[in-house]
Amino acid sequence: MESSERMSDEEVAHFFDLRGKVALISGGGGALGGAIARGFAIHGADVALADALAAAMEPAAAEVRARGRRALAITCDVVDEASVQSMVDQVVDEFGRLDVLVTAAGIANRIPTERMPVEEWQRIMDVNVRGTFLCCQKAGIQMIAQGGGKIITIGSVRGFQGNPGGYSGYTTSKAAVHGLTKQLATEWAKYKINVNSLAPALFQTPLTKQVLEDKALYDFHMARIPWGRIAVPDDFVGAAVFLSSDAADFLTGVILNVDGGWIAS
Ligand SMILES: NC(=O)c1ccc[n+]([C@@H]2O[C@H](COP(=O)([O-])OP(=O)(O)OC[C@H]3O[C@@H](n4cnc5c(N)ncnc54)[C@H](O)[C@@H]3O)[C@@H](O)[C@H]2O)c1
Question: Is residue 257 a contact partner of residue 229, using CB atoms and an 8 Å limit?
């Protein structure tokens, strides 16, 4: 669209319509990836899920199919370059294109820095940073060939600030994801690829249950959230749909905090 043009009512009305789009979600077997997969399907997208754990993707794939959309589950290790290339190839073989990438594969640990084995630190960096880079690179090459696309990385409020709980791997990795997001947004604007990051605060999943059942940690997190509750995975779906949609065509390089006001306070 030229800057002097107005959008038609039709275009504005269909801002959030993902029909005809193909989305790929790494970490699609996880809590966040699964919630976003369902949201994408409800808004009309076909969805490919990729995860290291094949069985973990079955519920999300079933949810997509139950909404009349096509689903594909791909076993993939995001740390391995050949595996990531194969993931993108399988999506294109099956659906013919790739419009949206969400990089939701990620891991965390909570070890005080003075006791953090460097191998553990590196493991976090490998999955969260190398894995995000590889998924963006391979999907981006496909999007460049197609003439555009949308990439949503998954950052974290921890990418902005330290935490007393021992997150030197995780915090470093998420700050790197935020930096990579801005770098790719700048480099790939000329290819009409929007690259943004969704940065959640702690949310309820089977893996964070242990943290949230610890009263001191629960109180620590609640004290930082002006909205007054801990998030659930569905709290991020609206932002993911928005960032994947035509409504976000002029939005790139943004780290979107979906955090109940954590970072603002
Ligand atoms: N849970 C939270 O409170 C929280 C807060 C902020 C950010 N995040 C981020 O959100 C994202 C999703 O987190 P979640 O809570 O849904 O976690 P989750 O553990 O439910 O999902 C992550 C998925 O990534 C997959 N995965 C891990 N390593 C992989 C690899 N090498 N290759 C392919 N897949 C791999 C896992 O099998 C899992 O299914 C992560 O990036 C996480 O850092 C989570």
Answer: no
Compute φ and ψ for 37, nearest 5 degrees: -60, -45
Find the radius of gyration of the CA atoms of the chain.
18
Cβ of 154 less than 6 Å from ligand 1: yes
Say how many Å lie between the CA of residue 248 and the centre of ligand 1.
24
Of the listed ranges 1-5, 131-135, 259-263, the one predicted with least confidence: 1-5
User: What is the CA 164 to chain-centroid distance, rounded?
Assistant: 25
In a domain, 64, yes or no: yes
Q: Is residue 190 part of a domain?
A: yes
Domain range enclosing 122: 15-258
pLDDT surpasses 70 at 1 = no
**Which residues are identified as catalytic?**
170
The verdict on the CB of residue 106 being under 6 Å from ligand 1 is yes
Q: Is the pTM of this model over 0.85?
A: yes
